[in-house]
Amino acid sequence: MPSWIIFGRGALGNALKARIGDNGLQVSAREWLDNPTGFSSQTKALFLAIPDDAIIFSVKKIMKQNITIPIFHCSGVTPLSDISFYPNSGIWYPMQSFKSNSISWTDIPVFWETKNSFLKTVLEMFHKDLRIPNGLICTSQMRSKYHLGAVFANNFMNHQIGLIKEYCYINGIEVNFFNNMILKTIKNALEGKPFEIQTGPAYRGDKATIEKHLEMLPSDMRKIYKSISDNIAEIKLKENEL
After folding, report:
1. Angle formed at CA 198 by CA 194 and CA 200, multiple of 5 degrees
2. CA dist 210 → 159, 161, 238 (Å)
């Protein structure tokens, strides 16, 4: 019988099931909540790979079934205190986007938060079955900060590249010409100090060029261009004041 229950059929749930194979049972959260059933006595823990706003409701529903196995939610921002009413509750949060099919599991930072040493032992067994290093113990407050950082590093950066592609499409220009520039910019920023190597019209205070660019852009992109340009100028001004 499977040792682990994966609650949810979204991107994370699917990735966990693919990784852990027959040692994990994937359950549709919606179907189970509509028709609750018990779990095998061999089940070691249940992982809630579900939307944040469904976590508390789901744990309460599970608790009503007199289920006592450890439960870990996988949210980056939901604090442990939100489900502390359930005795064996903890957090297992992988800081990774699971939209892609190619996931390097051993490179994913995973953050743990548990109420006792027993739950930590359960997570160690889970990671052994996942064939990845143990996670890092982290408070709810610190984990939420990492999650916000991941939004900047992953979601916002991805959106920026999406905007470049959209800009190229609507203007009929070749997007591939920007590939090397994107890769080089990211490499240089990671290796150095991004604000110190900043360039461009906003950094130079070239208002004429900025106005021309704004005229060229559709209204939705214009707002983003202006917001980022203003922030670059503000940071440059602060640097000059030091």
Report:
1. 155
2. 21, 20, 20
Note whether 113 and 80 are within 8 A (CB).
yes
Alpha-carbon distance values, 42 to 5, 47, 118, 125 (Å):
11, 15, 16, 13
Helix (H, G, I), strand (E, B) or coil at 49: coil
Structure tokens at 144: 């939420």
Specify the residue for token string 């469904």.
Answer: 54
Residue 112 zone, left/alpha/beta (φ > 0; ψ -120 to 50; rest)? beta
Q: Where are the beta strands (DSSP E) in the chain?
A: 4-7, 24-27, 45-48, 71-73, 89-94, 110-114, 136-137
Q: How many CB atoms lie within 10 A of CB 232?
A: 19
CATH class of the 4-138 domain in this structure: alpha beta
DSSP string, 50-108: S-GGGHHHHHHHHHHTT--S-EEE--SSS-GGGGTTSTTEEEEEE-S---SS---GGG-
For residues 143 and 110, give the distance between their C-alpha atoms in angstroms, rounded to a whole number: 10
Per-residue pLDDT, 38: 83
The answer to whether the predicted template modeling score (pTM) of the entire model surpasses 0.70 is yes
pLDDT tens figures, 28-53: 999 999 998 888 888 999 999 999 99
- Backbone phi, psi, residue 195, to 5°: -70, -30
Q: How many helices (H) and strands (E) does the chain have?
A: 10, 7
pLDDT of residue 40: 82
